[in-house]
Amino acid sequence: MEVVIVGGGISGLVSAYKAAKEGKKAVLIESKDKLGGMIGTTSTSFGIVESAANGLIQTDSILDLCKDINLTPIYTNAAAKKRYFWSKGKIKQIPVSFLELLRGLYGFFFKEFTPKENESMKDIFFRVFGETISLNIIEPAFGGIYASALEEMDPQTVFSDLDWNNQKSLYRKLKSKKDKKRSVPAKLISFPSGMGELIEKLIVFLEKNTTVLLNQRINSIEEIQNRYPNAEIKIALPFHSVYHLLKDSEVTEKKVSPFSESDLPLQSITSITVFSKSKLFPSQGFGILFPKNETIRAKGVLSNTDIFPGRSKEGVFSETWIYAGKIAKEQSLEGLISILKQDRKQVSGKEEELSGVFGNEWKQSFPIYDKRLRFWNETIDEIEKEFENKGTSIRFLGNYRRGIGLRNLIESALRL
């Protein structure tokens, strides 16, 4: 059986790895001149700079993959256990009162977590956990993952694997959906030279048994079927590219006609890594999350030097600031760097000359987990089923398919 994979990001590379492990002939097609998608690591004279994710959560299958490609993971420093929030101009681990915390815990364990008609994430979280917990802890935490405000997200899209037919609390819903017990704890891992090492090792692993075609654009499903009849097809393209592929394919054009390009739930994210001679804040920890009702405009800042070993040279400290949504879409990189300096001054209490500044912009590249995305995924499910009924195996993979983190992307590629 031949497997054709369109898209050479992490989902496509892991799909090719899976095909190789199963003894299948794989063809990996990428429109650009390199593989890896958004993931990559740049070495500088100050330390390393990640273009996207700085790590992923380990699972049994991810550790098996690492072993197969001769990649040794590294774990977070002990200092990274502490997480901080910005509250009323100060850094705090718990930015709410004891009574407000009890209110939130009661909601988590006992209050029904089933959305009422037209409830957004903000509505259900306010109802279940209370406004203070939602705005000062939950929204910044979810913003660190999905880069979206609560009112922008849909609970059934974010928690797509929960059973929404029962009236249980969020705790009971999460407990009932747990898979068989893992043999490894859910720890954050990276690699000695950064996340780019994962891409490099996957590419080396695939050299012997996968045909890689770079600088080749696929314009329609029919083109794939004509070039590779009877092949198993994996579409591992970015959200907007999948939309154009399906819109330009005769077999799927009608299915995606209700969607317009301008209405695709996409947003921009910019990450800016800076190096300095003094630490942003005296305490050690993973970083700081910023609620949107504060004056700081970043979603959060990662304290890279505290998280993983070897992220900055001796005597230099590394941080990565994250900007998302409207500000990342409308501002230039230079404009965001200027804003970063203002934000940084608020946190550190002083203005400091930065040793190095490195930005990565991803314009309209990340999905917003709202109702539109839920309807889109339901349409993709229907397309997959229709092809299956006709005897063709086609699967769609990516950060828009019910899971935005690297762990979800890799696990999906290994499963499908």
TrEMBL record:
What is this enzyme's catalytic activity, as reactions?
coproporphyrinogen III + 3 O2 = coproporphyrin III + 3 H2O2
Q: A Pfam family for this UniProt protein?
A: NAD_binding_8
Compartmental location: Cytoplasm
Q: Name one GO biological process term.
A: heme biosynthetic process
Q: What cofactor does this chain's UniProt record say it requires?
A: FAD
Keyword terms, alphabetized = Cytoplasm, FAD, Flavoprotein, Heme biosynthesis, Oxidoreductase
**The EC number(s) this enzyme carries:** 1.3.3.15
The Swiss-Prot or TrEMBL record annotates one GO molecular function as: oxygen-dependent protoporphyrinogen oxidase activity
InterPro entries in the cross-refs: FAD/NAD-bd_sf, Protoporphyrinogen_oxidase, Zeta_carotene_desat/Oxidored
Please name the pathway. Porphyrin-containing compound metabolism; protoheme biosynthesis
What is one term from the GO cellular component aspect held by the record? cytoplasm
What does the record give as the function of this protein? Involved in coproporphyrin-dependent heme b biosynthesis. Catalyzes the oxidation of coproporphyrinogen III to coproporphyrin III.
Q: Which NCBIfam families does the entry link to?
A: proto_IX_ox
Identify its protein family. Belongs to the protoporphyrinogen/coproporphyrinogen oxidase family. Coproporphyrinogen III oxidase subfamily.
UniProt-recorded name of the protein: Coproporphyrinogen III oxidase
Please spell out the taxonomic lineage of the organism that makes this protein.
Bacteria, Pseudomonadati, Spirochaetota, Spirochaetia, Leptospirales
